[in-house]
Specification:
The structure is a single chain. The chain has helices at residues 2-30, 36-41, 84-95, 118-129, 148-154, 156-159, 194-201, and strands at 51-53, 59-61, 69-75, 100-106, 172-175, 181-185. By secondary structure, the chain is of the alpha+beta class. It folds into 2 domains: 2-41; 47-201, Glutaredoxin, CATH 3.40.30.10. The chain has a 4-stranded mixed β-sheet with strand order 4-3-5-6, covered by helices on one side. Strands 1-2 form a two-stranded antiparallel ribbon. The N and C termini lie far apart (95 Å). Mean pLDDT is 86; it is low at 16-42.
Length: 202
């Protein structure tokens, strides 16, 4: 009789344990949002997600450039391509009232050709080339300390256009009116090149 009682008790406890496991599994599954996988896949492929600091320490919000075509260019004050500042300013003067803007990012990644402070860079650009287009604080455009905005510009997984590498100073990235990357232009190509001008004007 005692054996029968112990057997029945064991069966009851086992059944109770199995029900608890089922309940625990159900609770665990319910904790997972049905949209979780969708949320992980979604990525912002627009430059509008970025806020950076300009040469004067003020915040520059790219979302304020919605509806404009954008040229992003990494600059340097002691480079063979430095005279391109004049062409960049000329291009900006011509098209700034036609939904186009240039945003410069000084960088010291190539030949240490941008050694100055933000204040020195601002003075150099204004005094030598009369630069009035937006210039940001000095950043890194390659390597382990690459700025997030250049991670976006150079990685297809982030920009949904193409992988690229910044090869030298004055490489140009062209983004459309939706803030999406459309073209990567090498350093040696002048800002006033017909391909760039026709892209802006179209």
């Amino acid at each position: 009789m005692k054996r029968i009682f112990l057997l029945v008790l064991s069966v009851i406890l086992l059944a109770s344990c199995e029900k608890k496991k089922e309940k625990d599994v159900t609770l665990t599954v319910n904790k997972v949002s049905p949209n979780q996988n969708k949320e992980i896949v979604q990525t912002n492929h627009s430059i509008y997600q970025f806020k950076v600091e300009d040469l004067y320490g003020d915040e520059f919000d790219f979302s304020k450039l919605k509806g404009k075509k954008i040229m992003v260019v990494n600059t340097a004050s002691e480079c063979g391509f430095t005279p391109q500042y004049a062409d960049l300013q000329k291009l900006y003067d011509t098209y700034k009232d036609k939904n186009f803007v240039i945003v410069g990012f000084p960088a010291n990644n190539f030949g240490k050709q941008e050694p100055g402070t933000n204040e020195q860079i601002a003075a150099f650009c204004k005094e030598n080339y009369g630069v009035t287009f937006p210039m940001m604080s000095k950043i890194s455009v390659k390597g382990e300390d690459m700025h997030p905005i250049y991670q976006f510009l150079t990685e297809k997984s982030k920009n949904n256009f193409a992988d690229s590498e910044v090869a030298w100073n004055f490489q140009k990235y062209l983004l459309n009116e939706k803030g999406e990357l459309e073209k990567v232009i090498p350093s040696k190509t002048l800002p006033t090149d017909p391909d760039i001008v026709s892209w802006i004007a179209q």
